[in-house]
Design brief:
CATH topology of one domain: Methylamine Dehydrogenase, Chain H
Number of strands: 47
Number of helices: 5
Distance between the termini: 44 Å
Organism: Cisticola juncidis
Structural class: mainly beta
CATH superfamily of one domain: YVTN repeat-like/Quinoprotein amine dehydrogenase
Helix content: under 10%
Radius of gyration: 27 Å
Pfam family, one: WD40
Keywords: WD repeat
Protein name: WDR27 protein
CATH architecture of one domain: 7 Propeller
Length: 723
């Protein structure tokens, strides 16, 4: 995403870029990429206004004035290709004079000319992917970048790209990846944020040696701000203390979760311009303010006292259907006292345009009152209410694009008028896999499979299932006699877990002797043996494509194995988990990994790569990152977990040592229901129908039920009533 003074840019297909003029409400479509667009940036100057789009195949600079003129004349707009086959681009940024473009790809930064295809310099030194880069506007030749770095996850480098030399390298700032960066020309400082809600400010003044000026913990500042609102409401006695704003850790209501608060964006805030009609301003005119975009909301930071000035939470507004954001972009300058913000959802294939009235937001919160259900300071163009705007027109369609980490990342637009027809396209990188109904609007109802399929598609799917899956006849009696018994080891060894693959062809067994065995379904042959754990294997789980197997062990490690290779593709060591890892499984059609650790379960994003470089053969290529932790309510340990991986589902079911059953909605990012005293004893197994979303009405009804097993018996639950 990218925003400028009057323009917003975002991909609308795998290789097409849409630039929307907020003043005229007119879209401009730019085509030139063959691969998915992964990075966008507007130029520093207003005239001519440039925008740079980058993908795996090309880096293109577009002159919007020339492109608009070409469209008016009836010709297709064309851009200037300045880079070819540079790799996966994570970030692009124009120089202050728009003459150069910094392109961050992998652990390198390419300095490209903005006028022709020429590499001016290549900056090496990072040991991990570069996540952001910014030019110093007061010193053109200086570029600052932040990056991830293996265990420590972050290093920061400052380059003089004119001489292509490293002039400064910082020490380790934090254990979490640095995600965002901003240069403050007024104070000659840089501000960087990490994935755990921490901000660092460093001075770039000559002689300061890049010393740290301030360290801000956004979680604590948010708690202080909410406590101030709560305390003032209590003194006034008007009930403001019940505001949704006052959800601190100490006051957090039952059923909510604590997020990691990754800092996705840092942008200048046009604070005082929005108060030109106000008699009293809230701070000195010399104070700088900055927007902080996180996964849960927008914050305004005052650099004079490093405190929170205002806070906008996505979930406090009913019209905004996105509650957890994956990325966001803001306009630097306010127009008529309002700021535009683009947000993409973490789980849904949706983008929302948010208009924030900055003066109204700050005024209401400085009076320690946040209106509930009153969006005067926020107008949203999203899925709930379709306004007469560009986002409601038929120009938009369901599209998808590729990311570095394979999140579900599709924009969703809701057409009005005539029906929009979109061809079924691949979703998963270069694999030719149909999107299985994702050419339509996403299903907001849990466990509601897509049944709107053509008869030919349904018949083909049924034939393929009959060939692969071994269905148990419903008319038959349950199995009460065993047909075969084999010994898996020479000496007696407990088997802690078993799991069939989705097609029923393979069976995985986790054993106490630290190994994982894979058998054919008829138990006639051992397909593979995986060894490497230092403790008993307590859980195994198959991927949706049957190519990968995840295993968790008592040694507090998690491993992902390729069925065709005995070496693990991914290893998460003891340093990641404080307690034993249990109930590991793939989730959201192999997009995430779920696992339990103590009283919380973790949602991990991952990328698997089994290829090896002869020069770096011992350096793993697979990566895994923590997205969020979800603690159970009043439980010492999670004793059971279940989630569907065969189709897209937001529901995660957990059982705790407190004998409770809890339902989490990961789309909303919170606990939706808690069943206290579900059993007399702790639940040790949760079972739900994990069939395909293409099922019939009979199987769809089965999706509404789940079974729990404990020491006192087995219970069948209805998800609609939780009884």
């Amino acid at each position: 995403l990218a925003c400028s003074h009057h323009h917003c840019a975002f991909p609308v297909s795998r290789h097409e870029l849409c630039v929307w003029n907020t003043a005229t409400a007119q879209p401009l479509y730019l085509s030139g990429h063959r691969c998915s667009i992964s990075a966008l940036s507007f130029g520093s100057r207003i005239s001519p206004l440039l925008v740079c789009s980058a993908s795996h195949d090309h880096v293109i600079v577009w002159n919007l004035d020339e492109c608009t003129q070409k469209v008016e004349e009836g010709f297709p707009p064309r851009g200037i290709v300045i880079g070819t086959l540079l790799g996966m681009v994570l970030h692009v940024r124009f120089s202050p004079d728009d003459q150069q473009v910094a392109v961050c790809t992998g652990n390198q930064i390419y300095m490209l000319s903005a006028k022709n295809e020429a590499i001016l310099a290549r900056l090496d030194g990072h040991l991990a992917p570069v996540t952001a880069a910014e030019f110093c506007t007061w010193e053109k030749s200086r570029l600052i970048s932040v990056s991830e770095d293996r265990t420590f996850k972050a290093r920061k480098f400052v380059w003089d790209y004119a001489t292509n030399q490293l002039i400064y390298q910082s020490g380790i700032i934090t254990a979490f990846p640095l995600l965002s960066l901003l240069t403050d020309e007024e104070n000659k400082q840089i501000i960087t944020g990490c994935a755990e809600g921490q901000l660092w400010i460093f001075s770039l003044i000559s002689g300061h040696n890049y010393r740290c000026v301030a360290h801000i913990d956004l979680k604590k500042e948010q708690e202080k701000f909410c406590h101030k609102v709560w305390k003032s409401g209590k003194e006034i006695g008007e009930g403001q203390n019940n505001s949704k704003l006052c959800k601190t850790d100490n006051l957090r209501p039952e059923g909510s979760v604590e997020t990691s608060l990754p800092i996705l964006l840092i942008e200048h805030c046009d604070f005082f311009v929005c108060f030109h009609n106000e008699e009293n301003t809230y701070s000195s005119q010399n104070t700088s303010y900055f927007w902080i975009g996180t996964s849960t909301g927008l914050l305004i930071i005052n650099l004079a006292n490093f405190e929170l000035e205002a806070f906008l939470s996505y979930r406090d507004y009913s019209d905004l259907s996105i509650q957890i954001a994956r990325s966001c972009a803001l306009t630097r300058k306010a127009v008529n006292g309002k700021v535009l913000c683009l947000i993409t959802s973490m789980f849904e294939d949706m983008i929302a345009l948010v208009e924030v009235n900055l003066a109204a937001l700050v005024t209401t919160q400085h009076r320690y009152f946040l209106p509930r259900g009153n969006e005067k300071s926020l107008s949203v163009f999203a899925s709930v209410t379709v306004h007469t705007s560009f986002l409601s027109n038929h120009y938009f369609r369901v599209i998808s694009h590729k990311c570095v980490v394979p999140f579900l990342c599709k924009l969703n637009y809701f057409p009005t008028g005539e029906k929009n027809t979109v061809k079924d396209k691949p979703l998963v990188f270069h694999n030719k896999i149909k999107s299985s109904g994702y050419t339509a609007a996403p299903r907001m109802t849990m466990f509601s499979p897509n049944t709107n399929l053509k008869r030919k598609e349904v018949s083909k799917w049924k034939i393929s299932c009959k060939c692969k899956n071994k269905e148990y006849p419903l008319e038959s009696y349950p199995p009460i006699k065993y047909e075969k018994e084999i010994s898996v080891t020479c000496k007696p060894t407990p088997i802690f877990c078993v799991q069939y693959s989705g097609d029923g062809e393979l069976l995985a067994c986790g054993q106490a002797d630290k190994t994982v065995l894979i058998f054919n379904s008829n138990l006639t042959d051992v397909h593979n043996v995986f060894s490497g754990h230092d403790g008993a294997v307590n859980s195994v789980g198959w991927s949706h494509d049957r190519k990968w197997l995840v295993s968790a062990s008592e040694d507090r490690t998690l491993r992902v194995w390729s069925v065709c290779n005995k070496e693990p593709a991914l290893i998460l060591g003891k340093e990641k988990f404080r307690k034993t890892v249990r109930f590991a499984q793939f989730y959201f059609i192999d997009t995430f990994i779920l696992l339990c650790c103590g009283a919380e379960f973790n949602l991990l994003s991952f990328h698997l790569d089994t290829t090896k470089d002869d020069l770096k053969r011992y350096k793993p290529r697979s990566v895994c990152k923590l997205v969020q932790k979800f603690p159970m309510t009043s439980a010492m340990e999670i004793t059971g977990l279940s989630a569907v991986n065969e189709f897209y589902s937001y529901i995660v079911l957990t059982a705790g040592s407190n004998r409770a059953l809890e339902v989490f909605d990961l789309n909303a990012g919170c606990s939706t229901a808690v069943i206290q005293e579900a059993h007399v004893r702790s639940v040790h197994q949760i079972c739900q129908n994990k069939g395909s979303s293409f099922s019939t009405q009979q199987t769809e009804a089965y999706n509404l039920f789940l079974t729990t097993a404990a020491g006192d018996g087995i219970k069948l639950w209805d998800l609609r009533t939780l009884r």
